[in-house]
Amino acid sequence: MRERREDLGLIAGEILRGVVQDAIPSLTWDAARALFAHDWPLNARELDKLLGTALVLSGGRIERQHLSALDAPPAAAPPPSTPPAPASLGAEDQQLRDALVAAMAEHRGNVAAIARVMDKAPVQIRRWIKRFALDVHLYRR
Fold this sequence. Notes:
Layout: H1 8-19, E1 26-27, H2 29-37, H3 43-58, E2 61-62, H4 91-106, H5 111-118, H6 122-131
Parallel strand pairs: 1-2
């Protein structure tokens, strides 16, 4: 959405039409300006969640005060160079964990891309992430 700000109004309208079937809610000018001024680091999912919450809070006419989530600080810090390893890993597990961490850093936490590179199913990558207590969100940015 960062690259296609001109479509923001259309996307917001479609999201609102999907949430409310019988009437289309409205945005005040201040609320619309706040939407256009936001950086949208999480893309359309962030907009969908924000508008859904604002709609519940507003009851139909979304004002700037209903978009308070736009004022929140950024969600995550940059990923660490190498996350700390669990203390009791064998050599083979440590090697697998290191390969997984490198792939997560290279592919910015995209599990599907990591699975393709490691020639494994995405569900297996998620199991390893859980097993090694890694946080995929730290790599997504």
